[in-house]
C-alpha cells in the first residue's frame, strides 16, 4: 500500500506560489534596477559636461537614457587609442610629471594607477584563481582569491627564512568587496577548479549556491587538492 501524500492547504499553496514568484521576479528586478542605476550614474557624470550641440537630448523631444554612458565609453576608448601613439605617450608622461610634483596627490595617483594596471593588465593572473586555506585555525577552511607571488621586501624577508609565500585575498560573506590580505606558504594553498565568478556566487549566497558542474569534484575532495604551481623562472 502506498501512502497518500497529505494535501496542502490553500494558505500553504498561496505561500509556496508567492515564494516561487519571488524567486523568479527578484533577480530580474534587481538586475534591471542595478543596470538602470549604472546608466543614470554615467549620464549624470557625462551629460553635464557635453556641449549643447553634442547632446542628443537637445535634438529629441525626450531624454535618451544611456547616451551619456555610450559617449563616455567612446571617449575613454579614444583616449586609450591616442595614449598608445608617440604623441599621446608624451602628453601622458608630461601630465604624470605634473601630478608627481604634488605631495599628497602623487601618492594617491601612484597607488590607484598601480591597482588598475594590476587588475586590468591582460597578462596578469591576479584574482583569476581560487583556492582554500586553513583559516582561522587548523581544520577550518576558508575560500580565497589568489592575488600574486610575494614581491619586494616581503618576498626577500620570507626567502631568507626559506618560505615561498603567495599573497591571497580573503573576502567575507556575503559582501566579498572587503577582506584581508594574507601571505600563505604556496604548499598550504589548495587550488580549486572553479572560476572566480562561481566562487563569488558561493560567497555571496553563504554557501547555498554551488556550481552544478563542480558538484562531483566537491564530493571527492582528492579531486581538488592540488598544489598551487610554482612561479616560472624567467
UniProtKB/TrEMBL annotation:
Pfam family, one: DUF502
Transmembrane segments: 18-39, 59-83
Keyword terms of this UniProt record: Membrane, Transmembrane, Transmembrane helix
Name under which the protein is recorded: Putative membrane protein
